[in-house]
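Entry for the shared binder. Reason: the reviewer on the internal report wants the predicted structure included alongside the sequence.
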Amino acid sequence: MERTKVAILGCGFIAEIHASSYARFVNDAEVVAVYSHHLDKAERFAKEQGIPVCYDDVGKLLSEVDCDVVDVCLPNYLHHGACVKAANAGKHVIVEKPLCLSIAEADEMIAACKKNGKLLLYAEELCFAPKYERVRHIVESGAVGNVYMLKQAEKHSGPHSRWFYESEKAGGGVMMDMGCHAIAWFLWMLKGAAAKNVYGNFMRVMHDTDAEDHAVTQIEFERDGRTVLCIGEDSWAKHGGMQDCIEVYGDKGVCYSDLFQGNSSQMYSLDGYDYASEKAGATTGWTFPVFEEAFNQGYPQELSHFIDCVRSGKTPLVDGEYGKRVLEIIHAAYTSARDGRKVALPFASGAKRPVDNWK
């Protein structure tokens, strides 16, 4: 069977990760074209990644290149237009996080893909990161009992490109860049749970931006008649390198896991669970469960899943509707940060950009 042909839109940091992931780990796919608004960047990227052709015109790429999937790795404000064009050209669409800027754009993207019978795949790698997935499976086995609180934190000293700091293009600041990860992971851990309200506290600490560069977001979910408190901490104002970590609190245990430090998580369980690591013995008390995969951020697993959905017709685990749910909570969080109050969910927003709810 032929490999699934992919065209990547974008030549930045995340496009490099996607291209490398396809080449190294996704055997059923091949990248056949790349686009950048700047042709010299596209040419350089194509040469470095071994991609046959490059374009500086999306319409021309879509009309001339035989591809099955368009992988959108462009700045946030370009997601909507690129997705709709690709869907109308008969392509499945992968969109990097966040899905887009407005709820109206999300609806149009979902509708365009449905109309053309194509998948809209939301690229949230934390749903596939092996270390965090190991934690999720252990938690679902009952190791920590009933979960009452989740935390997720992502912090560093700031993004790679200038457009991240310009809310007209990004839609907001650190909440759009990294807070979307926390929300998506909370939804992933609490499948079927309804978000009841959100409270956001946003700050501008150290960067030249018209949006926020430090954010703490609190979301309350309703699950099996109980409230689960979820707290996201996101910052562009932390020096000393990247931090990405999760915490899970239950009435029978707790788990701490750091994506970038060590190859095991820290788990405390009263009842124990299936397996921690070789020679570990019992799994009660404090243990250190390992994860099996080498590439721990989840990008290859995410893209492998998406390509499998395209090839087999499987239902994707994270799609456009999932991305829209994340975006809805983001819009509500900006509103909360402006008003200094909890905002009830579901939340209807007509704002063109999430940050418009804050300004």
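Summary line for the report: The mean pLDDT is 94.
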